[in-house]
Amino acid sequence: MKALFIGGTGTISASITELAIRRGWDLTLLNRGNRPVPQGARSIHADINDEAAVAAALAGQTFDVVADFIVFNTAQLERDLRLFANNAGQYIFISTASAYQKPCADWLITESTPMHNPYWQYSRDKIACEERLLSAYRNQGFPMTIVRPSHTYSHRSLPVPVHGSEGSWQTVERIRQGKPVIVCGDGTSLWTLTHARDFAVAFLGLMGQPKAVGQAYTITSDEQLTWNQAVNAVGIACGAQPKLAHISTEFLVACNPSLSGPLWGDKSNSVVFDNSKIKRLVPEFVCTTRFAQGTAESIAWLVAHPEAQRPDPVFDAWCDRVIAAHEAGKRAFAEGSI
C-alpha cells in the first residue's frame, strides 16, 4: 500500500510516520526538508504551497492514501482538491476537536455534536474545510476521511494550560524555580490529553479502509484529567511541587486577547469525548499511555535535548505581571480600597 504524507515530521505526524514504516507501508513524505526523514520513507523536497512544483513532482504517481497534516484553511484545501482529485484512493484531512460546539451544550462530545466555535478562527477555518470536503464527497465522490484530534502531544512536546510563543519549556522552568504557574479558572475543568503514538494506531487503522471514506472520526484518549492534575503531573516529572495560580479566563483574555481562542474556544471547557465510533472500526485502538507516563517521557527528552529548551522571557514576565495584578486586586478588595 502506498501513502503520501504532506508534512509527516510534526508532533502528531511523526508518530504516524514511524508506525506506518514499521507496518510496511510504501511511504513518501513531501515537505520542505526542515527535519530529517526517517529511514524507510522516501522523500520529496517541495513546498506544498508551490502547487505547480508539487504537481510536477507527483506527475504520474498514484497513492492509496494521501494525508495532509498542514491544511488550515479552505484555500489550502482547494489546492489539495486540485492536486489529488485523480490520484488518491483516500484523502485524510486532519481537523480538530476544538471545532465542536463551544460552549458545550452536553457533557459528552460525539461526531454528531454541532460544529460551532465563535471564539477561535482556527477552529472556524477547520469547520469550513470540513464543509468543503463533504461537498466534494457528495458531489464529486472525492474519497475523503476526516479525523478530529484533541490536545495531542509527544515526547517532543509538553501540554500546559497557558504558554508563550516559544512553547512549554518556560512553564517547566517556572515550576523548577518555585514560581507560580497560571491555570485558567479553578483548574477543575476536565481535559483530554492524547499521546501521539496512541493516536497513530487509530490513524493507521483508517488508512486504506473503505468504510472510513465519507466519514469523520474523533480520536482522543479516554483518560480525563483536571488542569490541576495535569500541571501536578508535570511537576512530579520535574521533581518539584507546582504552585498553582488560579486566574479566571476573563482576566487572562483581558491581559492577552489572543488567548480568547485557545481558552474560551478550547481549554476552558470541560471535554469528554466518545471514541466508540473509531473503536468500532479500529478495535486495536486503545490508549495505553497515561498522561503521567507521557509527561515523564517528555520532561526526560527535553532535559536530554538542550536545543529544545527554548527560554521565553517575554512570557515569563507576562506571567509575573498577570499574577501580580491578580494578587493586588485581591489584596485591595480585602483591604477595602476598591
How would you describe what is shown here?
α3 links the parallel β4 and β5. The chain is α/β, with parallel strands linked by helices. The protein is globular. It has a seven-stranded parallel beta sheet with strand order 3-2-1-4-5-7-11, sandwiched between helices. A three-stranded mixed beta sheet has the order 8-10-12. The protein has twelve helices and 14 strands. The longest helix is centred in the last third of the chain and has 23 residues. The chain has one domain: NAD(P)-binding Rossmann-like Domain (Rossmann fold, 3-Layer(aba) Sandwich), CATH 3.40.50.
Key features of this structure:
three-stranded mixed beta sheet; seven-stranded parallel beta sheet; 12 helices; 17% strand; 338 residues; alpha/beta; Rossmann fold
Summarize the structure in short.
By secondary structure, the chain is of the alpha/beta class. 41% of the residues lie in helices and 17% in strands.
Given the structure, what is the number of helices?
A: 12
Radius of gyration: 21 Å
CATH superfamily: NAD(P)-binding Rossmann-like Domain
The average pLDDT score comes to 96
Give a quick account of the main beta sheet: strands, pairing sense, barrel closure. 7 strands, parallel
Unreliable spans are none
The outline comes out as globular
Distance from N terminus to C terminus (CA atoms, Å) equals 68 Å
Percent of residues in beta strands: 15-25%
CATH architecture: 3-Layer(aba) Sandwich
CATH structural class = Alpha Beta
**Could you give the count of β-strands?**
14
Number of domains: 1
Strand order of the largest sheet: 3-2-1-4-5-7-11
Helix content: 40-55%
